[in-house]
Amino acid sequence: MTRISIYRIVLLGAFLLFIENSFGQALKVLVNKKDILIGEQVLMEFYVQHNKGDEVQITIPDSIPHFDIIEKKSKDTLLENGIDVIQQKIIFTSFDSGKWVFPPINYSVNKVDGITENIEVNVNYIPMDIAAAARDIKTVLEVNYFNWMWVWIGLVVLFILIVSFLIYKYLKKKKVTTNVYEKENAFALAIVALQKLQNENNENTMPVKEYHSKLGVIFKDYCGKVAMQNFFHLTTAEVLKKLKVYEINIQTSTEATEALQTGDATKFAKYHPTFIENEAALNFIKNTITEIEKSRTKNI
Question: Which own/partner pairs from 292-297 qualify as long-range (CB within 8 Å, at least 24 positions apart)?
Answer without folding.
Answer: 292/222, 292/223, 292/226, 292/243, 292/246, 292/248, 293/187, 293/226, 295/246, 295/247, 295/248, 296/226, 296/246
